[in-house]
Design brief:
- By secondary structure, this protein is an alpha/beta fold.
- It has one domain: Oxidized Rhodanese, domain 1, CATH 3.40.250.10.
- Helices cover 46% and strands 12% of the residues.
- The chain is built from 7 helices and 5 strands, in the order H-E-H-E-H-E-H-E-H-E-H-H.
- The protein has a 5-stranded parallel sheet.
- The N terminus is likely disordered.
């Protein structure tokens, strides 16, 4: 009986457990992107245009210019290319905005493995990480109404 209760408690605990956010550096970002893990760039359009983007990034602004957001609407745009049971990378300018977004994905949206680029795209670029112009990706996501 005691083993049954212990098993039941462990099973219930697993159901309610949340994955932790994994902070990654540039080398880890490079490896994950090359292995096909989707990357979501949550910055503003003006920021994508200013610096370019990591190739293959999904452009999904989370916070607007005033810091407001609609997490539920944003999450609906994420789901077609990043499922909760699959890993996903989140990037912003310096890593500050991705902290709460990564926690939201992990703790409230049920994503099992969320990688937070801890120093953002500014550090990626400063350390020689490649970027591509954002214009084509912006046009594509605007046409599809996904960014």
């Amino acid at each position: 009986m005691r083993h049954l209760l212990l098993s039941l408690c462990l099973s219930l605990g697993a159901l309610f457990a949340h994955a932790e956010v994994i902070n990654i550096n540039n080398a880890e970002l490079d490896t994950l992107v090359k292995s096909g893990v989707p990357i979501i760039d949550i910055r503003l359009q003006s920021e994508w245009e200013e610096t370019g983007i990591v190739s293959g990034s999904k452009l999904l602004t989370f916070f607007d210019e005033r810091g407001r957001h609609d997490a539920a609407a944003w999450l609906e745009k994420v789901k077609p290319f990043a499922k909760p049971d699959e890993p996903v990378i989140v990037i912003c300018r310096t890593g500050n905005r991705t902290k709460p977004v990564s926690q939201f994905l992990s703790q409230q949206a049920g994503y099992s493995r969320v990688y937070n680029v801890k120093s953002g795209i500014k550090d990626w670029i400063a350390n020689g990480g490649p970027v591509v112009p954002a214009a084509q990706s912006i046009a594509a996501c605007r046409a599809a109404k996904t960014c």
